Each structure stands twice: as structure tokens, then as C-alpha cells.
Amino acid sequence: MSIVEDRPVRPAERPPTPQPVPNTTLRERTAELNALQEQVLRGPSDRATEAQHAKGKLTARERVALLFDEGTFVEIEGLRRHRATGFGLEDKKPHSDGVVIGWGTVHGRTVFTYAHDFRIFGGALGEAHAEKIHKVMDLAEAAGAPVVGLCDGAGARIQEGVSALAGYGGIFQRNVRNSGVIPQISVMLGPCAGGAAYSPALTDFVFMVRGTSQMFITGPDVVRSVTGEEISQNGLGGADVHAAVSGVAAFAYDTEESCLEDVRHLLSMLPSNNRELPPVAPADDPADRRCERLLDLVPSQANQAYDMRRVIEEIVDHGDFFEVHGQWAQNVVCGLARLDGRVTGIVANQPAVLAGVLDIESSEKAARFVQFCDAFSIPLVTLVDVPGFLPGVDQEHGGVIRHGAKLLYAYCNATVPRISLVLRKAYGGAYIVMDSRSIGADVALAWPSNEIAVMGAEGAANVIFRREIAAADDPAEMRAQKIKEYTTELMHPYYAAERGLVDDVIDPADTRGRLIAALAMLRTKHVPLPGRKHGNLPL
């Protein structure tokens, strides 16, 4: 657990806590209460607030105000104080103990939150601080509502010793118990070091802000002393590092305001818990809208790149696609959108990056997203244009088999409505893994540009006809002839449909309407699961 500097409260900068005077009236007691509550709302001192703003950071309550609908936040345990003694703590007992907890509404639906107050003990977690977080997480579980952590604290309060560490254990245990039960979102708005970083890692989505939020297990000083490597805090665990390199963060933003705005947007697309369906928006984009632009967006030649995001935006309601992990493993695109007003999870290969191949990171990214959607009853649409798995020694030694199996497992285990659509290439094992009919897709569609096969025609011809090609007077001509022969026999656009592996080959312009119709048909899908404690995901 990281060591954090104690930010002492300066009692001289705030009036002392009002003490009840004997024989006062209820009105006088209420006036005392109001004065005390006002003091709690202002925080430990004006100087501490100025220091927080000087770092480009908002205070805990300013963040809470941005997260919730105006005037709806209800704080609890604002008067809580720690009971620790030693190391001067008995003289420093600020109200709230460095964390604001409570509930309010986001777009009219109940959401719970805890927000670290960096102005008090640097946001460090002590026993009372942890108990407050435990309480709000338990309330969120009982109410069946999302919980959002606004994180701005560097670790355990070292003056409280092992009691602080035990507090983290209680948070982790609740993170796991609520996983797949209520949405859990972590918003990193400051430092998060040591074991404290594991709570965000256990939640569904991690948001970070550039320049002010960092996450790492061991900080730059420890790295320097152990390995000799010189690196800054942002270089080690900043927002862009975790959004683009490690994959820990799903989103990265330049400002807290834009970050919290997107947290609100994400919450508007999620159900409150796993017993509810996602909220439905007005269906004001015609379900039968033809998508003629798709005929020009996607090149018919399999080796030409295009941006799959443009395809998705053409299909979904009003082109509104909320991408998840947009900077990491970009050869796969994952995100949420609405089709006819209903939230849908979309997984798609990205031909503009590495030709859309599957590799270690993209398999893990897509698997986690599929699992999330399945946990919260969000149907899945998979857009397939995949040439295979990425070959290479690094991939094989890095466990591409194991990581690819995660995506395969996630799809096979998913019971939500599943629709797959092959746009162009669908080769080999990668085709199977991308929610093919053979692993349980409810509806399998394809465009007339589809090529579903074990491998590309050129590679297949080189394997099957290698002797004929080698013995030919003109090997190049013979190879071209055999490639054409293989394509004609096994890779024409209706081959899979003739064998029932694709339900229909459709006009690309009809894609939106066909997807919406299939999703409507599957809305009451129910799949009984075998009796078991849980499966053994290939971690």
C-alpha cells in the first residue's frame, strides 16, 4: 500500500465545531446544525480548496454536483469522524473523514457514489473512511442501482496501520460480489497507488483524466530504486498509458467536466441492475431507413482498408456510437449504440488497423465487453471482417491461444440475443470465434461481398495445389488458375448460405432494418443454463 503525505486540517482556518448549549430551544439547536452542515460543505479550509483548484482539480462536492441531476444528491454520514489515536490523529478529526457518500439521480434514475476529498488527509483511506464506502456500496447493492467511485486518494492512511488495509479488503470483496449485479464505474480524478488500484480494476469501466490522474502499483521512486528506470508518474500510469497501452482505462479525457459528462451518458445506456433491461429511448430514427452509403463505404476488394466506425455510425440510431477502449487494441471496435431506441452492444473487426486481425489484446478487449453485455442483458451485434489471428512468435509465446479462447468462451457463454453479420473476409478460426453460427449466434447474416473460408484463396491454393504449381511450366499462371478455381468452388458469396451456416445474404442497404427486425424477434429469448457453480474461464 502506498504511503501518502498527511494533509493536516488547519483548525484555525475554520470555526470550531459548535457545541450544544444547555437549555436551548429546538430552533437554536437547528441553527447550530445548519451552521455545522455549512462548515462541512465548505470543507477543511479555503487554502485547501485553492490548492485543489491550483492543480486543475475540482473538489469532491463539485464533482458530485456535475455527476448528478441538479439538486438531487442526498449525502449521508457527512458528520462522520474517525476514532483513531496516535501520531496526532486525535487532534485532527475533520467531518466526513475525507470521503463524500450518498445517492442522487442521473437522467432521472438512482445512482450511488463515493467521492474522495483530497483536501482531507490527501484522500487517504482510514477505518471510518472505508466503512462509509462499504455502506454506500451495500446500499447500492440493496437498491439495485449503479455505484460510481470518484477516486482522488493515494492509498491507505498509514497512521491507522492495518485497519486501513482491512478497509480496502472490504471494498474489493464488495466489488466482486456486485460484479455483474449492478454497474460499477471508477472515475480516476487523482492519484491511485498500491493496492488501492485494484478496486478500479475490478469495476466495469475506468475513466481517467489526463495530467491529473495516475494509477500504478509501485510508483516511479520504487521503480527507479529496483530497476534503475527513470519515468514520471504520468509516463508510468497516466491516462493515455492506461487507455492506449495497458488497457486498464476504457476512457481518457482532457477535463473533469467532459469526463463526468460521458459518465452520465454511459449511465443513460445501462440498466440499473442485472434484473432490468437497459432504458429505451424514443425511436425517432426510422427502423426501415435504408443505408445506401454502405455500398460505397466498404470496398469489395478484401485487401483494401476502411474504417469500421463509419459503417457502425451509418447503421445505428442517429450515428451515435459510444466506443469503449477506443485507444487500446484498435484492431477490434467495441461499444454501445441504440437500434430503434434499444441499447445494443457492437463488436467489430477494424480493417483500418492490422487488417482487422485478432490478437492477444483485441481478443481480451472483446471478451470483456461481451461478458459485460451478457451480464446486463444487452444484445450483441457482431460485424465480421477478419483475415485470421495475428501470426508471430511473440503472439504464440504470449499466449494467443489462451487469450483467443477468452473471446470464444465469452461468446459461447452469452445468453443474450446474438446476431452476426459477415461483411467481407471471415477466415479460419477467427471466423468461428467472431460469433459464428456454429458457436451459437441466433441469426447469421452476410453481405454479397462475404468470403467465408478456412483461409484466403491464395493461401489455400498454395497449400492444396502446391505440387501442380511446382510442376507447371509457368507456376505463376498455374497459381492464378488454381486461385480462381478455389474461389469459384469454395469462396463464392452463397457457399455458406447454401449449407445453412448463414441465414441470409442481404442487400447492405437493408442492414439496419434487418438487424432491428432480428433483435425484435429475439427480445424474449431465454436460455436455461446448466446447474453449476461457475465455468472455468481461460484466464
From TrEMBL:
<dbReference type="Pfam" id="PF01039">
    <property type="entry name" value="Carboxyl_trans"/>
</dbReference>
<dbReference type="InterPro" id="IPR034733">
    <property type="entry name" value="AcCoA_carboxyl_beta"/>
</dbReference>
<dbReference type="InterPro" id="IPR029045">
    <property type="entry name" value="ClpP/crotonase-like_dom_sf"/>
</dbReference>
<dbReference type="InterPro" id="IPR011762">
    <property type="entry name" value="COA_CT_N"/>
</dbReference>
<protein>
    <submittedName>
        <fullName>Acyl-CoA carboxylase subunit beta</fullName>
    </submittedName>
</protein>
<feature type="domain" description="CoA carboxyltransferase N-terminal">
    <location>
        <begin position="17"/>
        <end position="282"/>
    </location>
</feature>
<dbReference type="InterPro" id="IPR051047">
    <property type="entry name" value="AccD/PCCB"/>
</dbReference>
<feature type="domain" description="CoA carboxyltransferase C-terminal">
    <location>
        <begin position="286"/>
        <end position="521"/>
    </location>
</feature>
<feature type="compositionally biased region" description="Basic and acidic residues">
    <location>
        <begin position="1"/>
        <end position="13"/>
    </location>
</feature>
<dbReference type="InterPro" id="IPR011763">
    <property type="entry name" value="COA_CT_C"/>
</dbReference>
<feature type="region of interest" description="Disordered">
    <location>
        <begin position="1"/>
        <end position="25"/>
    </location>
</feature>
